[in-house]
Design brief:
- With 398 residues, the chain is mainly α.
- 70% of the residues lie in helices and 0% in strands.
- It is built from 13 helices and no strands.
- The chain is extended.
- One of its GO terms (biological process) is stabilization of membrane potential.
- It is found in: Cell membrane.
- One of its GO terms (cellular component) is monoatomic ion channel complex.
């Protein structure tokens, strides 16, 4: 049952991503295609005028432009820029590699460099992702601590929580406070505000120093912090800057903080998306369950029905699955079933009970409050699992 629910969630997410990509492609094509056609027409006109003015053939000029494109890949530009492969340039390059930004302005041109990049990036990207996950863990711990402190202060103002004791008073509010967890929506809002503040501060630095507009600076911040890294705008590429050392240090700090915050925000948004998918699947499962029940009742009109039939309307997508076997049909209709059928129909619940008893006997039961399930902080893989577990299990004891 759990596997079927995971497969259904995976298929629905894949369909939604494909639809999201199709909609995005349609919007970007409608916005950018006319501008591309206009730019191509202007370029063809300039190319024609240049060949007439200098008495050059179109083939020779195109061959020259291709050679310049090859030189541009190697780091040669028309304007004076700093060397790409001095130590500072190489350090900036490895920073874009291990952070998975990959602007594309600097790329290895030799075979040895490309081979070294494969092994270097394999270890570097894995280590940086581990750093981001650990940063995410500690960030959620700090947010949970602050939000719980604010929640306790509100309870004291209302007179619900005593000033001297938090846990030993025996009140229901104190007991509920011990298992209180922050909402994923509050965490998402805090991360959104933090990311916006960092982006605005970084844009205020990039606008006068790099000569970009403020909107272009915000655009660069999102592309860099989200590790998309188009490479159309790249910071710290000129030879000289005013207060060059201070600017490069500030650029490094802003990119590091921005990547960490946006990475954490993406994981929180993924939890919200997971909750939405679970809600959709639950609605679909409820509709299918009602239809199956109506069919079963119609097919068993001659069966003597008991006065009170238990309905299974509260089926959870996370734990249960709608069974369409004959055993479930007999259980819904109120007929007697054998012990074998009973064990077969309840094997998931028995397995969970057996696991809980085993963990309790060994002395390390995993505590999971009902609030965490209601908030959706369960399950996940990789960084999503770290986010889920931290939000579900973080409680601050003071």
């Amino acid at each position: 049952g759990r596997l079927n629910a995971d497969n259904a969630r995976f298929l629905l997410l894949a369909v939604l991503i494909v639809l999201y990509m199709l909609c995005g492609a349609a919007v970007f094509s409608a916005i950018e295609l006319p501008t591309e056609r206009e730019a191509k027409e202007r370029w063809e006109e300039r190319l024609e005028n240049f060949t007439r003015r200098h008495n050059l053939s179109r083939a020779e000029l195109r061959h020259f432009l291709r050679e310049y494109e090859e030189a541009s890949v190697a780091g040669i530009r028309v304007d004076d820029i700093r060397p790409r492969w001095d130590f500072t340039g190489a350090f900036y390059f490895v920073g874009t590699v291990v952070s998975t930004i990959g602007f594309g302005m600097t790329t290895p041109a030799t075979v040895g460099g490309k081979i070294f990049l494969i092994f270097y990036g394999l270890i570097g990207c894995a280590g940086t992702i581990l750093f981001f996950n650990l940063f995410l863990e500690r960030l959620i711990t700090v947010i949970a601590y602050i939000m719980k402190s604010c929640h306790e202060r509100q309870l004291r103002r209302k007179g619900v929580l005593p000033h001297n004791g938090r846990r030993g008073s025996g009140t229901s509010e104190v007991d509920s406070l011990a298992g209180w967890k922050p909402s994923v929506y509050y965490v998402m809002l805090i991360l959104c505000v933090a990311s916006l503040i960092i982006s605005c501060c970084a844009s205020a630095m990039y606008t006068p120093i790099e000569g970009w507009s403020y909107f272009d600076s915000l655009y660069f911040c999102f592309v860099a912090f989200s590790t998309i890294g188009f490479g159309d705008l790249v910071s710290s590429q000129n030879i000289r800057y005013e207060s060059q050392g201070l600017y490069r240090f500030g650029n490094f700090v802003f990119i590091l903080m921005g990547v960490c915050c946006i990475y954490s925000l993406f994981n929180v948004i993924s939890i919200v998306i997971k909750q939405s998918i679970n809600w959709i699947l639950k609605k679909l499962a409820c509709k299918c369950c009602h239809r199956c029940q109506r069919r079963l009742f119609r097919s068993r009109r001659n069966v003597v029905m008991p006065g009170n039939v238990r309905s299974r309307r509260n089926i959870s997508i996370e734990t249960d699955v709608v069974n369409e076997s004959d055993t479930d049909g007999r259980r819904l209709s109120g007929e007697m079933i054998s012990m074998k059928d009973f064990l077969a129909s309840n094997k998931v619940s028995l397995a969970i009970m057996q696991k809980q008893l085993s963990e309790t006997a060994n002395g390390y039961p995993r505590q999971m409050s009902s609030n965490s399930k209601q908030n959706g902080f369960s399950g996940g893989v990789g960084a999503l699992a770290i986010m889920n577990n931290r939000l579900a299990e973080t409680s601050v004891d003071r």
